[in-house]
Design a protein that fits this description.
Radius of gyration of chain A: 24 Å
Largest interface: A-B, 94 and 94 residues
Number of helices of chain A: 23
Oligomer: homodimer
Chain lengths: ~600, ~600
């Protein structure tokens, strides 16, 4: 447990949330894969600025400053010190929280400066001892989450009018520089010692893990041979050369530092279309109940079947008709159904990914009135000019993207009483497969449980399930390949895409849904239980690694973008390297770093 | 050694080439990485139809038929039997040879039918026992080569007017179906038992390794959820469903099989623009000398420094002015300099990749008259309407692409007497870095060796090196991302690209070349030796795995295509899975296949 605060990470987080009921403090399931050095207490992703240990936020009109000041002794796990603004998952959870709150709670903020409180150092990147001591799955998950946060920074810059500027008041190494790469503008202090660097390859035998290699060439447009040279120099590059090579946008003398940073932030702020005079809404604590076997929020819940390796997730549709206007949303804030669902789903995905690696299959159900979901969607799309509505749609987009890159098999079950329509249809489209019941469950005995424990057999179960494509599926929630999930599904089949899009707004029963290719299979009551059971049980019998690889390929048909390259090409190579003896073996570079011993490499190239 | 033929694979190949001098038969260097079961005799990629053991070619006018008839007992290594038309590297080397010869030796062939001589089976794919017993590097290299051959089949279909048709007269599983996927048209016999399948995931815990997952969605446009289902069914899908799901183009009853295959081949042949009445040229045996420490051909040679882990490769420019017309090329055939260089380089890349994994850095030099290289390029581009000239350019394109995906650090040294111009400039542009000497070597003492043993200090060394961008660099030799190497180099920097392209045809000395960004560094005589030595030695000190990952990212800036997705996203995931215990561990699925024991998986998802 944490050495200083006297509390386990989960206890700390749980307590900080005001004592939510049911937050367990016991050890998570599953022994570490490779190393037992780091304890496995359940990680919480909930925090708030008054509980930050590693970051400070300051506001000055349209400019916010996020200052990184990592507390060395406050690592999420024992066994390492977070020196030189190096970070672990706990540091990044706070950064993620800050980025989200800036979007929702601070409409007045139009530029965000990220800088460091340390002297002569911006950030040394991900903590190496943490990485060296972590099991493979932890490293992979850590990189995935930090990547998503950096993509979110770019999303805020591109879509929310909150431009991020990196003010590197000292050296930015590895993940420190990669954080800067996620910013729109990079300023480096020009003092003959400050530099940017990607020392992972020469020092640690791994790759920069948060998009560095992709962003250097594809975003910053650094020439590939210069990028190669740069990535082999542990000392990095600073000053005029860093500018000439496009590694940073400007090198600023110390004497002009503060005023130049302020001037540049003001310039970026001036370009923003964020509204004047708007009030933010507070991202209030999620009402979350968490036990070993269940997670529950206001609209989202999950049953965790550890024996079967399955999480059964249910998303409930809106309990009432939508309000008439966007003003209502402003007044009701975080309680507004679409925002609440996005937040709850986001937290659930992070919780299960990190704390429940043994649950390899996630089953998605919905419950509610599809017409009502569509009504909320119409309100959102009709008010998208409103900054807050825009933020809510963007949040849903990011949450669905998080699902797309989640290494779990996703199966949607579409049953009577469900509401897979519009925004919630995206859950079925994100799934690896979907099963839609044709007709109703003939056996209406309310005492007979469904295939698993999900509640069913209510009055509405006498009506066949419907799904609906709607405007929300036609462009507002693009995947990271910049296609809609429908476009990805029907990649190369424009007729099928047009047929599905043409029926937007109509409620489709199973036969039509299957014929249009919107669901995978549509068994009737006689076959349903057996077919679904086989699909789920079969999934548990396959190699988890092979499933991850297959899904990472099939989910991203078609074109690639910077984001898909980061999650596909770059992350896959990094995962490979993370399992290889040259990096992660007892004599590998990652494990030997700082010991004074040279790493031992198998010299054969693969 | 091979069980039946009484000769080692290398001896077999060497002898078959008519006793080329210097072909060593001793064991290759380097112990197997994970398993000692397969011996490591050096592999030769040279063969010819009269020596095929596993394939037959038959010709009928414009249609050639390639019949797979794998000889069970003729595996390249001991320890497995090639049952059910399963294949190993030896089988695929013959296929590669056949595809190449069909292009060059048979201009009359406009459609190629691939089928099987076995009853009820097309091909069971890559041999599982071979894979299970092979070290990691072998599996990765094997998949890379087989992928390149399948890409070559698609290239012949798209660019050479030789359309490939898969005539699946029985079940095509795994790599067998992936071979079909590389064809333009897939016919499956409809006899209630024949099916196509990708059983890798459910049976072996790995991915289809030759592009299957990418081609199913991105080429065949199978819907991703159906693809998911298909890839979990070991028994596969046949008949009408296979057609409906787009897995094959047609299912043909046995009674109509032969005539339908013939009719379809004739249809595709009729669409081809291959010339009438042209005569092919023979791909005569390469004049190759191979010892432990050197490889030598007519125009290409390599010194192998095993202690330093470096191969120094020299490509010599044309020894005489180009002929005046394409007719001359037809008459002189395989001796024509551009074709000879492409063939020699191709063979060298395959030889070093497979047989010399410990040589992690490849240094490229050229020697000759840059003006003469440009003259040959002009001849080629001016005669591209000629089928043979077109084939030569395409061959060079494919050879350079092979270099792009080679997991070795590539460094180009541009020195006096070199000819990095036009087509040969591509070698420098493909390199991870290039060093160009500014000025000449002041120390002209012919007895002083250069940095390493490459010959220098001749009369032409008194003249500074030049390079030249030319028309050949502007579109004829695209990378697999469909950009030229110049476009990839200057990705996102259109001004730099325009500046470089504008100087096409001019001979550029080091200062200009560096200023234009065409070379990485341009040290003068004083710094040259030290700077180059440091770069090369430093490379040998880095983790080979991390270098592979870095280069796989930096070399492919910008957009992705089916081909780059296969080598980046798909192969990287496969490599990861190949190292994981669930597949390759002693209790993993790949090792336990066929033993009657179930594989043991770590159930945690990563």
């Amino acid at each position: 447990m944490a050495a200083t605060a006297g509390a386990a990470p989960e206890a700390r987080a749980s307590g900080e949330q005001g004592g939510e009921p049911g937050m367990s403090e016991q050890e998570g399931r599953g022994a570490p894969e490779a190393s037992g050095e780091l304890s496995q207490a359940r990680v919480s992703f909930q925090t708030a600025p008054d509980r930050y240990r590693h970051w400070r936020i300051a506001f000055d009109g349209a400019v916010a400053t996020l200052t990184m000041d990592v507390a060395e002794d406050n690592g999420l796990r024992d066994g390492y010190e977070l020196k030189l603004n190096s970070y672990d998952l706990g540091v990044d959870i706070e950064l993620y929280d800050a980025v989200q709150r800036l979007r929702f709670e601070h409409p007045e903020v139009r530029a965000v400066v990220i800088t460091s409180a340390k002297d002569k150092v911006f950030s040394a990147g991900a903590n190496i001892r943490m990485l060296a001591a972590s099991p493979h799955a932890w490293k992979v998950n850590f990189c995935k989450f930090t990547n998503e946060t950096r993509n979110g920074i770019e999303d805020a810059t591109a879509c929310s009018g909150q431009a991020y500027l990196a003010a590197l008041n000292g050296t930015a190494s590895g993940g420190g520089y990669e954080l800067a790469l996620a910013c729109e503008h990079i300023m480096l202090i020009d003092d003959r010692s400050a530099a940017v660097s990607l020392p992972e390859l020469p020092l640690l035998g791994v790759l920069p893990g948060t998009g560095g290699l992709t962003r250097v060439t594809d975003k910053r447009h650094v020439r590939r041979d210069l990028a190669d040279h740069f990535s082999t120099r542990p000392e990095g590059v600073g000053g005029a050369k860093a500018v000439a090579w496009r590694l940073v946008d400007e090198a600023v003398p110390r004497s002009a530092w503060s005023q130049t940073v302020a001037a540049r932030a003001a310039e970026f702020a001036a370009r923003s279309a964020r509204p004047a005079g708007a009030a933010g809404i507070e991202l209030t604590p999620l009402g979350k109940t968490r036990t070993d076997d269940a997670v529950s929020y206001g609209h989202v819940s999950a049953l965790l079947d550890h024996a079967g390796g399955v999480a059964e997730i249910t998303v409930r549709g809106p309990g009432q008709e939508p309000p008439a206007s966007a003003e209502w949303i402003q007044d009701h804030g975080a309680g507004f159904w679409p925002l609440a669902v996005a937040r709850e789903l986001d937290d659930l995905v992070l919780d299960l990914r990190t704390n429940e690696p043994g649950l390899g299959t996630w089953i998605f159900r919905t419950a509610g009135d599809p017409g009502r979901v569509l009504a909320y969607d119409r309100l959102l799309l009709g008010s998208r000019d409103d900054w807050l509505v825009n933020e809510i749609i963007l949040y849903l987009k990011r949450t669905l993207r998080r699902l797309d890159v989640t290494s779990r098999s996703l199966i949607a079950l579409i049953e009577p009483g469900s509401c897979f329509a519009g925004s919630l249809l995206e859950l079925a489209l994100a799934a690896d497969r979907s099963y839609m019941l044709a007709g109703v469950f003939e056996d209406a005995d309310p005492d007979v449980a469904s295939w698993r424990g999900a509640p069913r057999r209510r009055a509405e179960d006498a009506v066949p399930a419907v799904i609906a494509v709607a405007e929300m599926n036609l462009g507002a929630l693009p995947m990271s390949n910049d296609l809609t999930r429908l476009q990805t599904r029907f990649f190369g089949d424009p007729d099928a895409l047009a047929a599905a899009e043409k029926l937007a707004g109509q409620l489709l029963e199973a036969g039509d849904a299957e014929r249009l290719g919107l669901v995978t299979f549509a068994p009737d009551d006689i076959d349903w239980a057996e077919e679904v059971r086989l699909a789920v049980e079969e999934r548990s019998g396959f190699s988890p690694d092979a499933l991850t690889g297959m899904e990472a390929n099939y989910r991203f048909a078609g074109p690639e973008t910077l984001e898909t390259k980061i999650f596909g090409r770059l992350s896959a190579w990094q995962n490979w390297i993370f399992t290889r003896p040259s990096a992660a073996g007892p004599d590998g570079a990652l494990r030997r770093y700082g010991t004074g011993q040279r790493a031992v490499f198998d010299r054969k190239r693969v």
